[in-house]
């Protein structure tokens, strides 16, 4: 790609950042994912050790769904991600697209590069939307600390949709299917056991979602299933490899 356009200039992965303003068209997949992983009782997020992989996976899945990137083919490290000509308007997606636009890279490389900076801007968006809020407290009566609290019902609605799919066998929409697949691949689904029972049938269904085995055979759904399966496979592989 030509580097005449400033939006396509090479970018150091460590410097990738994004604005915290919520996307005008609705929540990103990464926002819903992070919100589902929020634990209201403790004010923390499940799976912090692998969170950047799964957030990167959510951003990559959304870029692919919108047609901003292509995920497919094979290289030395597996499936390859290529940027298409038109960048996305959303700042979070644009930051990831800028990195991918430098040159084709395998999925794991993309996840490792675009994932680490995502937690803070995605969290800021959840707070700006009113889904979560920061609250100042004092530990031991005098040590200042900041905790997160759930505000809206959005998290409960997302978890209920995932439960309907995994427990009741409801037909998923592509977004819910992607959320289930990503959370399952991250290894964090058991942390939702109070809301989604961690049973043998649930485990089996979740693995089907990871492999893209869900939904009707429509062309658009098939593309989403295939892309999600490639990304979740990369997340699973990355999560079990020792980090250098």
From TrEMBL:
Biased amino acid composition, Polar residues: 1-18
Localization terms from the record: Golgi apparatus membrane
Chain residue ranges for the region called Disordered: 1-23
Domain of life from the UniProt record: Bacteria
Keywords, sorted A to Z: Golgi apparatus, Lipid-binding, Membrane
Pfam families membership: GPP34
Topology of the protein relative to the lipid bilayer: Peripheral membrane protein
InterPro entries in the cross-refs: GPP34-like, GPP34-like_sf
Record protein name field: GPP34 family phosphoprotein
Organism: Microbacterium yannicii
């Amino acid at each position: 790609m030509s580097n005449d356009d400033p939006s396509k200039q090479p970018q150091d992965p460590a410097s990738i950042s994004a604005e915290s303003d919520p996307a005008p068209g609705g929540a990103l997949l990464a926002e819903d994912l992070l919100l589902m992983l929020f634990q209201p009782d403790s004010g923390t997020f499940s799976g912090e050790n692998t969170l950047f992989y799964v957030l990167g996976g959510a951003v990559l899945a959304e870029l692919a769904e919108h047609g901003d990137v292509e995920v497919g083919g094979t290289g030395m490290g597996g499936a390859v991600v290529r940027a298409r000509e038109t960048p996305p308007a959303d700042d979070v997606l644009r930051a990831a697209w800028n990195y991918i636009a430098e040159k084709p890279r395998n999925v794991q490389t993309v996840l490792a590069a675009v994932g680490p900076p995502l937690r803070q801007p995605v969290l800021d968006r959840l707070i700006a939307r009113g889904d979560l809020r920061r609250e100042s407290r004092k530990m031991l009566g005098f040590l200042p600390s900041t905790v997160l609290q759930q505000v809206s019902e959005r998290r409960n609605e997302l978890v209920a949709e995932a439960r309907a799919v995994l427990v009741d066998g409801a037909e998923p929409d592509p977004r819910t299917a992607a959320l289930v697949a990503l959370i399952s691949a991250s290894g964090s689904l058991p942390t939702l056991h109070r809301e989604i029972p961690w049973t043998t049938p649930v485990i089996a269904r979740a693995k089907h979602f990871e492999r893209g085995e869900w939904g009707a055979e429509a062309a658009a759904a098939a593309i989403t299933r295939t892309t999600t399966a490639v990304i979740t496979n990369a997340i699973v592989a990355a999560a079990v490899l020792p980090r250098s």
